[in-house]
Amino acid sequence: MAEQEKLTTSPFGRFLKMGALAGRVGFSLVGEKTLGLFLGEESRELRMARAWVKNAEKIAETLGNLKGGAMKIGQMLSVQEAILPKELAFVLKSLQQNAPTVSTAVMMQTLDADIPHWRTLIKEIDEKPLAAASIGQVHRATMHDGRQVAIKIQYPKIDQAIFSDLKNLRRLFELILESMLATNLDHLFAEIEARLIEEVDYRREIRRIHEFREFYANDDRFCIPKPVEEMSSQRVLTTELLVGITIESARHRTAAEKNIWGRLLFRALAAQLLVFRKLQSDPNPANYAFLENGKIALYDFGSIKELPDWLHAGYMKTISLCRQDRFSEITAVAASMKVMMKSGEEVPFKHVQLFHDALAPVFLERPYRFNTERDPIKKIINYNKANFNELKDITFPGDILFIDRAIAGLIGNLTALGAEANWKDELFEAIGLSE
């Protein structure tokens, strides 16, 4: 990971960097499209692929260096790799675990300001971060009492910088997505803003950690590092150190191990969504780690989506209809979840049929293995692109965006693992349903 000596935090400075990036990317893509008019199909695709590699590297470098809202949006897009040019998705994935780090001297500014006495608690702190994220980075440390801990420290003034990013980034991502993704960017940016408000408050995250530790108190397969509150503040979060295997490394483990870890990821989302009704809404693979003993570690409780009663009831009714093979009735349930046409009419069944196909593996009576050849998320996205003119009049509540992203991220993680299980049994056991 490359290291930065200084982080750009002024709104004007960040605006200039993102504006320059938008100009470079836009000019490059327009030039390639124009030249493509005079080339054969194969040459045109090859040139555009090369252009995306170059532009993806520019985008990832700029967003990674800026951190904050800029990097967060890049991370969000990297999760949705099915909707992006593969060259862009590949490079943006680097933002998930290989983001540029900020020098320890810069990070100490936050520590000194928030916990002036931290040296009386910490014996030594590693200068090289364990991980770098959008609003902070994590350092391994040893406390004077011998405990090994992970200290998540916010970048100085990042809380001031991230909100100015939203407006500045809008044009950039309209430029990137306008030709490939038909989505309501107002919803997208409203979602990001809500998340960031939560994520910059580490005190709030500590409260969430306690809630989730209590929820999983009787199931030791889910490990959540305990907070060290005397070494935490609004911008500093210290927890017990718990290091595991990344999802990239897990790809190379045995099928049996990957199946166990995949089942636990699936159960985590099902139970959080339908039992606890509080969901970790960021599916970034860096927020999970796999342990050698058939357990998983859950990190990052900064962004939690709480389900309102009407939405929870809709998901439970959907499951009930699917298990009874009555999916044709789902359009009425969708309307109760505020998913309907702008006219107020129910969504035509043909548009929800594909979602039934995506859910089908969960209700099979036999094991099913997730793999890239039959990725349901890609099928849904391709359908949406092909039928955009009909689908553009569908309205939906912002509440669903958090949840859909988490579900899509789960499917992506299960696909990355190639996990296989009887998912119907896993679902029913996770949420306490009987046959």
Task: Name the descriptors.
435 residues; 18 helices; three-stranded mixed beta sheet; five-stranded antiparallel beta sheet
Alpha carbon gap, first and last residue: 50 Å
Strand content: 5-15%
Computed structural class:
alpha+beta
The overall number of domains is 2
Unreliable residue stretches: 11-57, 64-68, 78-83, 94-98, 179-183
User: Judging from the principal axes of the Cα atoms, what is the shape?
Assistant: globular
Largest sheet: 5 strands, antiparallel
Beta strands, count: 16
* Average pLDDT number: 77
Distinct helical segment count: 18
Percent helix range: 40-55%
Radius of gyration: 22 Å
Report on this model:
InterPro entries: ABC1_dom, ADCK3_dom, Atypical_kinase_ADCK, Kinase-like_dom_sf. Belongs to the protein kinase superfamily. ADCK protein kinase family. It comes from Turneriella parva (strain ATCC BAA-1111 / DSM 21527 / NCTC 11395 / H) (Leptospira parva). This is ABC-1 domain-containing protein. Residues 95-320 form the ABC1 atypical kinase-like domain. 36% of the residues are buried. The strands form six sheets. Strands 3, 4, 5, 6 and 8 form a five-stranded antiparallel sheet that branches. The protein contains 18 helices and 16 strands. With 435 residues, it is α+β, with helices and mostly antiparallel strands. It starts with a strand and ends with a helix. It has helices at 11-36, 41-66, 68-79, 86-92, 94-97, 104-114, 158-177, 185-199, 202-215, 247-250, 255-276, 309-323, 330-336, 349-359, 376-386, 388-391, 398-417, 423-431; strands at residues 3-4, 101-102, 122-125, 131-132, 136-143, 148-154, 222-223, 236-240, 278-280, 288-290, 296-298, 304-306, 340-341, 368-369, 394-395, 420-421. The chain has two domains: 1-242, no CATH class; 244-435, no CATH class. Helices cover 55% and strands 12% of the residues.
